[in-house]
């Protein structure tokens, strides 16, 4: 029995941490934001070099062939460093859609490009978890019409699109009739956007026996990835709050000696540490415990979001006025956690999903 | 990640299940009657109680195997069969003696204690020594070959049922406070002991105040040397990692709330169809699930001797607070029905266990190191934050 990370998994996190540390995580995120960049080619190239872009793609298609727990561990490190790079859409959900629902030909075309970082894939999945503003995409005769909001990894070359009937499609970013609009959000490290389809040519991803089940699996996986990103971001915020409290002096002593401040930090750590165990379990369950995977993914997303939101607030407060400034930059993590919370279902929506899955709702 | 226990342990699980099927009709209810003592003997003989205690001291003598101990606990809980006797003699004194007791103490005390023939209480806390336990004042002076004990203990669980007490007393008044304490053992039938019940908010009588007036105890009834009592009392702390929580109990309480929500109605409508209550239920479920995963991580850490960092330090704080909140949800689900209490109350649900646990777990939030002390420990030992500077006195 072993509930924990293997040596290889720890090494994966360590090597990624070294790379992101060297390339200056917050500094790079600031430049990305200031220049309104769509992609950070240097960061993407580094991630490709480390095998992160091809993490879950089979070796025969140029990837590393690792699992979804490994992907969650990468997501955690990216969140920890507020890394301005595509991952959840382009390196996890899109490859997964191709691997589970794509034809051999589609896999042979796209998987090597995603693995090498030569192409980025966006994922339009928001409406499958609850449509706002009557958005939604319908497929007819190989063409798509309608609207998809909150597309993940929006600055992409190709999109995986879920339609209203549970079908999945591939759409080129330059397809005729496709209008792309970036949606500015609080989180400036990961672009999201809106796609408008006016009779757009699309390739169906139709090799799966049950396409709706694949969509469900993408949602579950995406939720675990966002939970992991929040876990990383929140633990970085706790570390910064603790370090700041040890440094900052008021009333002739480090504020870390005040119990009021200490207890804020202890509460954050005590609430977040079980989330780490939960995210590991949920990442493991996706591929190894199929009967539990969906409910566990819901709880990982909802609970980690709730704790993450509390940590984001409290860690900012520990910094006093400086926490509110751009100077310290703590708000990059605050906003990353804020975006993760809402994507693919906020806590209430996801908990309702967990209740439905257990036949507890009407 | 490998969550299976493996072939050897699954075979062991089958043995336990088989034992339970064969013998479950002999299992006692609550209490310490003759059937409980007979059951305890049977469990020791099969290695389901006193499992790792050496044979010569009255145990079963198995090599420590954390997973096997876990399997025993899981299967007894699943079968809702008594896992044998508990109490502070078995859970605290025996491990302490195994760690630091003399050969004579091990031979004389462990066997009868394990078999339930000698019941113990623990004399640690005092009115002026709660969170600051080392501040205790009950004193023992050596007079010839006897200690003479004077002072008061409080929160003494089961003192009114106990045959003996293991007690921290101050024997070296001039030494620094942690170095002036000794660990004594003596009979609760000794002249000069007065026990007063301390009724708790559940109406229960488990706690007592115990007063000592010139209680005379043979000088040899000491564990460790004079002044080593603090070390003796802490000798078993290192075994305690993660042992406090049983997330499986929490899970079965959670399932109880689901049942309650399926059966309870308001205006004829089942509570499970109330989105507000359902959301609270799912919220608690997520938290329980997180603590269950955390527990698996601690178990794995103990089995594989791996460092689990802060994950162990947070268990007392998180589980007691969560359990209190969980019981609260059940009370709210019942609405006005939730305030019913006391044996035989009309309309009472779950035998009043929801209110009882709700209050009892508030006690556990405070007892054994308050939530505030837990937060200090997490901040100082877990996060490396500095201690509060001591006030300059005088």
Summarize the structure.
By secondary structure, chain A is α+β, with helices and mostly antiparallel strands.
**Strand line-up of the largest beta sheet of chain B:** 1-4-5-8
> What is the count of distinct domains of chain A?
3
Report the end-to-end length of chain B measured between terminal Cα atoms: 57 Å
Q: Regarding CATH, which class of the largest domain in chain A?
A: Mainly Alpha
Annotated CATH topology of the largest domain in chain A: Butyryl-CoA Dehydrogenase, subunit A, domain 3
**Residue-averaged pLDDT of chain B:** 94
The Cα radius of gyration of chain A reads 20 Å
Number of strands of chain B: 10
What is the CATH topology descriptor of the largest domain in chain B? Butyryl-CoA Dehydrogenase, subunit A, domain 3
Which secondary structure elements does this structure contain, and how are they paired or packed?
The complex is a heterodimer of chains A (362) and B (394).
Chain A: H1 7-22, H2 25-34, H3 41-49, H4 68-80, H5 88-101, H6 104-116, E1 121-124, E2 136-140, E3 143-151, E4 158-162, E5 168-172, E6 178-183, E7 192-201, E8 203-204, H7 211-247, E9 249-250, E10 253-254, H8 259-288, H9 290-318, H10 331-342, H11 347-357
Helix pairs in contact in A: 1-4, 4-7, 4-8, 5-6, 5-7, 7-8, 7-9, 7-10, 8-9, 9-10, 9-11
Chain B: H1 7-23, H2 34-46, H3 66-79, H4 88-100, H5 103-114, E1 120-123, E2 139-143, E3 146-153, E4 164-170, E5 181-187, E6 193-198, E7 207-218, E8 222-223, H6 229-233, H7 247-263, E9 265-266, E10 269-270, H8 275-303, H9 315-334, H10 353-366, H11 371-382
Parallel strand pairs in B: 1-4
Antiparallel strand pairs in B: 2-3, 3-7, 4-5, 5-8, 6-7, 9-10
Helix pairs in contact in B: 1-3, 4-5, 7-8, 7-9, 8-9, 9-10
């Amino acid at each position: 029995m072993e509930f924990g990370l293997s040596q290889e998994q720890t090494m994966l996190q360590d090597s990624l941490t070294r790379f992101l540390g060297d390339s200056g995580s917050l500094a790079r995120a600031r430049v990305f934001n200031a220049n309104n960049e769509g992609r950070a080619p240097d960061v993407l190239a580094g991630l490709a070099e480390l095998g992160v872009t091809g993490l879950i793609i089979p070796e025969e298609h140029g990837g590393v062939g690792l699992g979804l727990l490994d992907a969650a561990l990468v997501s955690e490190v990216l969140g920890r460093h507020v890394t301005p790079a595509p991952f959840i859409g382009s390196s996890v959900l899109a490859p997964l859609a191709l691997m589970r629902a794509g034809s051999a030909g589609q896999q042979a075309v796209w998987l090597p490009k995603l693995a090498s970082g030569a192409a980025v894939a966006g994922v339009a999945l928001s409406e499958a978890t609850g449509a706002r503003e009557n958005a939604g995409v319908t497929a007819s005769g190989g063409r798509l019409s309608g609207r998809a909001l909150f597309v993940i990894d929006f600055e992409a070359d190709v999109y995986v699109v879920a339609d209203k009937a549970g079908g999945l499609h591939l759409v080129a970013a330059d397809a005729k009739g496709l209008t792309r609009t970036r949606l500015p959000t609080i989180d400036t490290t990961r672009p999201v956007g809106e796609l408008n389809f006016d009779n757009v040519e699309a390739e169906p991803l139709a090799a799966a026996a049950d396409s709706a089940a694949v969509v469900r699996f993408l949602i579950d996986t995406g939720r675990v990835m966002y939970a992991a990103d929040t876990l990383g971001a929140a633990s970085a915020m706790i570390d910064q709050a603790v370090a700041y409290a040890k440094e900052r002096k008021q009333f002739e002593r480090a504020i870390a000696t005040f119990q009021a401040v200490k207890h804020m930090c202890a509460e954050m750590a005590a609430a977040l540490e079980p989330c780490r165990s939960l995210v590991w379990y949920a990442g493991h369950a996706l591929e190894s415990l199929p009967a539990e995977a969906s409910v566990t993914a819901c709880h990982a997303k909802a609970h980690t979001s709730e704790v993450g939101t509390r940590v984001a607030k409290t860690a900012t407060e520990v910094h006093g006025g400086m926490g509110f400034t751009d100077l310290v930059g703590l708000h990059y993590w605050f906003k990353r956690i804020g975006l993760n919370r809402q994507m693919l279902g906020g806590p209430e929506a996801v908990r309702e999903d967990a209740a439905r899955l257990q036949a507890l709702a009407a | 990640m490998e969550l299976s226990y493996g072939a050897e342990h699954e075979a062991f699980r089958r043995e336990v299940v088989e034992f339970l099927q064969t013998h479950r009709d002999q299992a006692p209810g609550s209490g310490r009657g003759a059937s409980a003592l007979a059951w305890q003997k049977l469990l020791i003989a099969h290695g389901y109680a006193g499992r790792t205690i050496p044979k010569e001291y009255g145990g079963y003598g198995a090599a420590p195997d954390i997973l096997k101990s876990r399997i025993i606990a899981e299967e007894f809980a699943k079968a809702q069969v008594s896992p044998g006797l508990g109490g502070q003699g078995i859970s605290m004194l025996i491990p302490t003696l195994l760690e630091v007791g003399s050969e004579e103490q091990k031979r004389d005390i462990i066997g009868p204690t394990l078999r339930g023939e000698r019941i113990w209480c623990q004399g640690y806390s005092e009115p002026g020594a709660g969170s600051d336990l080392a501040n205790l004042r009950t004193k023992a002076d050596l007079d010839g070959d006897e200690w003479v004990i004077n002072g008061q203990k409080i929160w003494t669980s089961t003192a009114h049922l106990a045959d003996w007490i293991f007690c921290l007393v101050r024997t070296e008044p001039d030494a620094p406070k942690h170095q002036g304490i000794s660990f004594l053992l003596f009979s609760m039938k000794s002249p000069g002991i007065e026990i007063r019940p301390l009724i708790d908010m559940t109406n229960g009588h488990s706690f007592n105040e115990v007063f000592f007036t010139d209680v005379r105890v043979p000088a040899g009834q000491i564990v460790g040397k004079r002044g080593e009592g603090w070390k003796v009392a802490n000798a078993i702390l290192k075994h305690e990692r993660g042992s406090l929580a049983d997330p499986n109990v929490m899970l079965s309480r959670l399932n109880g709330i689901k049942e309650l929500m399926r059966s309870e109605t308001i205006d004829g409508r089942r509570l499970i169809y109330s989105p507000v209550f359902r959301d609270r239920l799912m919220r608690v479920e997520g938290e329980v699930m997180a603590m269950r995963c955390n527990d698996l991580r601690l178990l794995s850490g103990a089995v594989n001797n791996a460092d689990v960092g802060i994950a162990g330090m947070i268990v007392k704080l998180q589980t007691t607070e969560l359990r209190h909140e969980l019981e609260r949800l059940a009370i709210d689900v019942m609405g006005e029905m939730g305030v019913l209490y006391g044996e035989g109350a009309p309309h009472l649900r779950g035998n009043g266990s929801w209110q009882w646990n709700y209050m009892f777990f508030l006690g556990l939030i405070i007892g054994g190191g308050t939530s505030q002390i837990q937060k200090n420990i997490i901040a100082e030992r877990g996060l490396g934050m500095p201690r509060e500077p001591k006030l300059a006195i005088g």
